[in-house]
Amino acid sequence: MPDLQRRRILVETTRRTILALRVLPRRAALFYVRASLRALRLDDRWSFWSTLPPRELSVLVELTRGRKAVVELGTGTGWTTLVMALSEPQCVVRTYDTLEKPHRAAYLALAAPEARERVVLLNGRGEEAEPPSEPIDLLYVDSNHDRAVVRRSFERWRDSIACGGFAAFDDYANDNYPGVREAIAELGLQGRTAGRLFIWKKTCAQ
Fold first, then answer.
1. Cβ of 150: how many Cβ atoms within 10 Å?
2. Which ranges constitute the DSSP H helices of the chain?
3. Looking at the DSSP assignment, which residues form a beta bridge with residue 201?
């Protein structure tokens, strides 16, 4: 890794880990710090840059507070998955991906066994998965950012979201992935933004 790029990552790692300790619950923050250090040792730049920054992670944590069922479309290397599981002790996170990213097992090993037991790793496309019979509290969409796939993902899971539950879409504010904004516009969803996230709340009438 070129020295300039490595220095940039070291500076950003320091900034993010300090922020994580401020805005995330203790167990989740400690995991985030350890995962960041492991990413440096592994030279795993993909995990570092693709995972939600601490402020956006804190938004997902707030959405899962007191909740029990989360579905994540796009596991990646599991950072977001584990932050949500570690933040809410009763929450089960079902997470879908079509392949296992390098180093995922190394990050999973950083979490306590109790939290890992509440993470259900599923191989497959979230937009094609069979939703569980029980309602879910949060749908987090962070897989293929193609417009059609984002739309199908939401339509597949919309009826499974509980009254008062949420759907959160990553990279809504990222100009490199216009398909996310396009899908949300086509779906006619009204919500709020938080950093690069778009958040929709389901009412009892929907």
1. 29
2. 3-23, 26-42, 45-50, 54-64, 79-87, 104-108, 113-116, 147-157, 178-187
3. 166
- The closest of 43, 79, 71 to 165, measured between CA atoms, is 71
CATH of residue 131:
3.40.50.150
On whether residue 165 sits in a domain, the answer given is yes
Span 6-58, pLDDT tens digits: 788 889 999 999 999 999 999 999 999 999 999 999 999 899 889 999 999 99
Cα–Cα distance for residue pair 181/198, rounded to 1 Å: 9
The CA distance from 44 to 41, in Å, is 8
Do 147 and 179 form a contact (C-beta atoms < 8 A)? yes
Could you tell me the residue range of the domain that residue 110 belongs to? Answer: 52-201
For the whole model, what pTM was predicted? 0.95
Beta bridge partners of 192: 199
